[in-house]
Amino acid sequence: MELWDTLGRMQQLLYSGQAYSGSNTSVQIDGSALTSGIYFVRLVPQNGEMQVQKVILQK
User: Fold this and answer.
1) How do the pLDDT tens digits run along the chain, 59 residues long?
2) For residues 38 and 6, is the Cβ–Cβ distance under 8 A?
3) Contact call for residues 11 and 4 (beta carbons, < 8 A)
4) Distance in angstroms (rounded) separating the CA atoms of residues 2 and 43
5) Whole domain around residue 44: which residue ranges?
6) How many domains does the chain have?
7) Closest among 53, 59, 58 to 2, alpha carbons compared
8) What is the pairing mode between strands 51-57 and 37-43?
9) In angstroms, how far apart are the furthest CA atoms of the chain?
């Protein structure tokens, strides 16, 4: 799971490893070094479609 900015630069690796379907896995974004704005969380599963979710960081 990765955090990307609107210019297409990866800002943070949020999670690396296996997460299982049906389990609750939470991640926290450390926004202290980020500016307010729109970011995208990208999940790249080993077998399946990539998923992207827009998030807004407000400070």
Assistant:
1) 999 999 999 999 998 887 777 777 788 888 999 999 999 999 887 777 889 999 999 98
2) yes
3) yes
4) 7
5) 2-57
6) 1
7) 53
8) antiparallel
9) 36
